[in-house]
UniProtKB/TrEMBL annotation, chains A, B, C, D:
Pfam families: TetR_N. InterPro entries: DNA-bd_HTH_TetR-type_CS, Homeodomain-like_sf, HTH-type_TetR-like_transc_reg, HTH_TetR, Tet_transcr_reg_TetR-rel_C_sf. The keyword Phosphoprotein does not apply. This is HTH tetR-type domain-containing protein. Transmembrane segments: none annotated. It comes from the Bacteria. Residues 16-76 form the HTH tetR-type domain. PROSITE patterns: HTH_TETR_1, HTH_TETR_2. Keywords: DNA-binding, Transcription, Transcription regulation. Residues 39-58 bind DNA. The keyword Transcription applies. It comes from Ktedonobacter robiniae.
Amino acid sequence: MQTPTPHLTLKEKQRQERENLILQTAEEVLEEKGYYETSMDEIATRVGIAKGTIYTHFPSKEELVATIFARDMQKFLQGFDAILEAELTPRVRLENIMSYLHEGLYGRRAKLLSSTYTGVDLKRLVNEKNGSIREMWECLISKVSKLLDEGKAVGEFRTDVSTRVMLFMMLSLFSPRAHDHVLLEHDLTPDELLQQLKILCFYGMTQNQPE
Amino acid sequence: MQTPTPHLTLKEKQRQERENLILQTAEEVLEEKGYYETSMDEIATRVGIAKGTIYTHFPSKEELVATIFARDMQKFLQGFDAILEAELTPRVRLENIMSYLHEGLYGRRAKLLSSTYTGVDLKRLVNEKNGSIREMWECLISKVSKLLDEGKAVGEFRTDVSTRVMLFMMLSLFSPRAHDHVLLEHDLTPDELLQQLKILCFYGMTQNQPE
Amino acid sequence: MQTPTPHLTLKEKQRQERENLILQTAEEVLEEKGYYETSMDEIATRVGIAKGTIYTHFPSKEELVATIFARDMQKFLQGFDAILEAELTPRVRLENIMSYLHEGLYGRRAKLLSSTYTGVDLKRLVNEKNGSIREMWECLISKVSKLLDEGKAVGEFRTDVSTRVMLFMMLSLFSPRAHDHVLLEHDLTPDELLQQLKILCFYGMTQNQPE
Amino acid sequence: MQTPTPHLTLKEKQRQERENLILQTAEEVLEEKGYYETSMDEIATRVGIAKGTIYTHFPSKEELVATIFARDMQKFLQGFDAILEAELTPRVRLENIMSYLHEGLYGRRAKLLSSTYTGVDLKRLVNEKNGSIREMWECLISKVSKLLDEGKAVGEFRTDVSTRVMLFMMLSLFSPRAHDHVLLEHDLTPDELLQQLKILCFYGMTQNQPE
DNA sequence: GATGAATGAGCATTCATTCAT
DNA sequence: AATGAATGAATGCTCATTCAT
């Protein structure tokens, strides 16, 4: 799927477009209803095509969803590298990563992901896709870990907390989940929220002077 | 369901026991397989009763699961009050809440919850149940918020971060999700993890002296 | 299925009856339309039950059909033994076998069998059923072969034709197939037909005096 | 299809060739997999053309298969006439017919035929094709019947068996079916088998002197 | 004409729910 | 009250056929 050949015939272009439309629509429905409440029929209907057509693009529902995940993951992970490789202090780069996570693709998909990861064999499928997302994920983790260690080395970050736990904090705080809306549906703009989360991240809740 | 009448006939007691058994078993299966992969048949078989019997206790699968949530939530929320009302500094009470969350029921259910909350109309059901869990939740939030505000007032907590966001951080950090295992499957004991999370929570990642 | 327990509760009896009804009806439809043109829906409708009900008796279409085959085969093969063990000359026993084959279950099923044996994995299923039909079939063949050899030994049958080929002739002549109707739709009664086939079998087409 | 016009343009010739290729290939697949397990896709792929192209030659799957049958039948029936019209005794001509049947096209197709004849409306289609195969078949039967009657008249064949039944025996014995392999998978060469079948046909199983 | 993507009716199968016993 | 057989709506998937290019 999606072979990014530079020169496509008209038909191939249309086919690609339709495939993207299917992926987009499926993603929407999936986000709305979750894996099990999403039927191939509904996806087809929303796209405005016949059910069979989906099967000319994807061999099964699982594969379709796995493709969506893989695509999103990949996009998301690619965005990271630019940030990680910038010539900035560890602290600033980490802040940028936080911003990226905050607005991030990862957050939006988390709900879908968790609803799907239970029970179905998507894990296997997603992992088999695109040179294993898992590997990329591990790679990302190790890069960010290195960043944190760098920060520790130059005295920017505290050394009495495991790098892993720091990572965990970041991913937890900047990948908001569905039910968090209850908590966060108040008067803060997303940007203010981001700022405050960064403060908490770097300085904690205790009253002591930042900077 | 579960009318807590003090004096029950033998039959009524047996009925209660069975209902509890169903709830327990269903909870187990639900945790193992998620909402959609759990069938009424399997629950009944595991309990050792007929499928129909479940329907004499609960009118539908949704209602059964909603009951489980409501029960868990209630237990969980009750545990809070003791902690919140203790005669301790805001800071210490907050730490206790973190510990409670960390080991907590809430975390264990989160997976199930997220797998279920998508698509089915459980939200409505859960909310309609037991004088509205939602209200209790709001109540809890407001109590913890008050605690945080207290802490701010006595100078224990920083004032430049919204109380809501602090709450959010706590709930995010101390209610681990399934996929976090990837991150946390390393050499820390749960207690060490808890300690480190508290440090991060109170003092942040930046190198500066705690205490 | 069909455990022939002598004492059954009413429900169990009804269940058995229904199962038989399903088997019978399925057999009819199968004979009319063949494996692929037979839908579970039609079977259910003809029986007057819901489609799902069939699945409470048989786990799949294949299994249902395999059960039908196994049952028929077994009935048919059991009938053989009585004939083979009678205290009669080989020749007479062989004639009885011919009569049995002529009226036989085998013939009626042959059409269904051949329509089904192509492509589906029924072979495996049927063979796995009831202690392997195949073995029983082999056993039958060896018994009839022995009978033929006996006949050869006592000078009743010619010795210049392989026993296998004789068997083949019998099975071919006395297990009429569907398209034979074209040939045999004329003025002979089934009994006359049987008589004439026996004559051909024993004395051939050439003009020479029988007896 | 296959309009046997003597003078064809190049394109028409190519078209004919392709049609033959389709027929051949379809026949192969059909023999391998049976009617229902054969998909138009597979035929097209094996031929190396697009699925749609088949539909420019044949209006439907049924029609395609019917054409194959009709063609085979026709070839087969034509072979008969030469044998029937030879200047030989009825007995010898009959033997030749047996040999022809034995090696025959008819036998090879029987499996396919029976797998197909069930359920689909191919009967009608085949019969409607090519000036009705049925008629040719009837014609053949009547010719062979005449041959048998001739044989009866000159004292070669017995007169106490209906001509139809004799015909039936021949067709049954010399048109082997798939499942007969079980029986015949032994040490006889096809030729020996043919010889022995002829003996049985003419002289029967009973011990009495041939010739 | 050839192509092959699109179509959609059709099918086997599942499972929450009902209800006669 | 408990049972579990029966129900039937819903779903993923297939494949002969069509038709725009």
